[in-house]
Amino acid sequence: MTVLFVGSGRVPWKMGSYRGGVSVCPLRSRLGVLRMSNVETDALCLGLDRGEQKSWKHRGYRVAYEEAGMEGKQRNELPPLLLVHGFGASSRHWKKLIPALEKEYRVYAIDLLGFGLSEKDVAAFRSEDGNRIGLFKVWSDQIDDFIQSVVGEPCLLVANSVGCLAALEVACRFTSQVVGVFCMNPSMRALDVRKRSILQNIFAPLAMEALKVKPLGEFFFSQLQAPDILRQVLLSAYCDPSAVTDSLIEDFARPARDQGALDVFLEFITYDRGPIPEDYFEILPVPSMILWGEQDRLEPLRAGLHLEHFPSVHKFVVLPNVGHCPQDEAPHLVYPYLQEFIASVVRQPQVGRQQ
Predict the structure, then answer these.
(1) Where are the beta strands (DSSP E) in 118-235?
(2) Quick check: pTM over 0.85?
(3) pLDDT higher for 4 or 326?
């Protein structure tokens, strides 16, 4: 497995050979530095809302999704791409990447239950007897059903943050529906009971119980919805402040005003059990690639760099001057690696570890 650090172009690399648009600078046997050549970004930054918005029902719950890309035989050798957003986001978080992808692939971007324009009913995360169902089980069931009912053939999953865990669970539970998983800054679930420090083990449960008190939970959620505070939250997720636009803020704020959004929010932030990324990568039966923004303050690189050692991770790429959401902040850096990964999956679709 290879770890790559991608240069921003601001660093004066002086060594390395030129190969097809990248300068490869070996540092040691498993580590290299790349500087991208000039990449045309117009297609990645224009025409941001060209996909078709649709809806579909999963177990009676409304699911919103976006579909883009041409149909036809010219696409039958390439897997459809299913884009899975992170916490609080929606299919709109892929609006800078879809215009480039739709030229070559069938593309679907789904809103997970509880987010975006999908239904926000906490009952979706409860069993018939009222017990809590794991979030990632609910979302993986939703994605598997979507692949079978809407897409109609196995997909390559492209995910960010918490969406990576949902995608990985689909790949582990419904292997026949997934040909590969492309992860960007996966959530490491630092507050899971298996990862908390001694102090976190004391204070995290207290905070979670406090938020379950309706007035406190409502107040906390309302504060997060305030534009100024939401802007600060997003600025902590992005390296480039100019990427945090009014449009981006509204993309996150609007769904949070829907009925039921508070209950789903509390369901998520009080969920401190269940799988962690290491559980998935240990048994992942399909190939994967990980991209990580080096300036991610929400999920620091140091917390996830060890994922490179899992055999199912075929490449781990570090993107400098990029934060938690590379697909929105640096789509021109993401696109070449996604193309590379898709090509490798098409050439050798069964290279992942078998269960």
Answers:
(1) 155-160, 178-184
(2) no
(3) 326
| 3-class DSSP state of 172 | helix
- Amino acid 247 reads S
Q: What is the pLDDT of residue 351?
A: 41
143 closest CA partner among 124, 129, 163: 163
CATH homologous superfamily of 42-347 equals: Alpha/Beta hydrolase fold, catalytic domain (3.40.50.1820)
21 pLDDT more than 90 = no
pLDDT at 71: 62
CA distance 178 to 49: 27
At 93-104, the pLDDT tens digits run 999 999 999 999
Q: Which residue has the tokens 């117009």?
A: 42
Per-position DSSP letters for 299-343, written without gaps between them:
S-HHHHGGGGGSTTEEEEEEETT--S-HHHH-HHHHHHHHHHHHH
Q: Three-state SS for 30? A: coil
Residue range(s) occupied by CATH 3.40.50.1820 in the chain? 42-347
Are β-strands 313-319 and 288-293 bridged in parallel, bridged antiparallel, or unpaired? parallel
Q: Which residue(s) pair with 64 in the sheet?
A: 55
**Chain mean position to CA 316:** 15
Please state the rounded mean pLDDT for residues 77-102: 95
What lies within 8 Å, CB to CB, of 289 at 6+ separation is 180, 182, 183, 313, 314, 315, 316, 317, 337, 340, 341
Chain centroid to CA 20: how far?
Answer: 28
The pLDDT confidence band at residue 107, using thresholds 50, 70 and 90, is very high
pLDDT at 202: 63
Residue 193 pairs with which residues in a beta bridge?
A: none
Question: How are strands ordered across the β-sheet holding 2-7?
Answer: 17-19, 22-28, 31-36, 2-7, 313-319, 288-293, 178-184, 155-160, 81-84, 107-110, 61-68, 52-58
Asked whether the predicted pLDDT for residue 16 surpasses 50, the reply is no
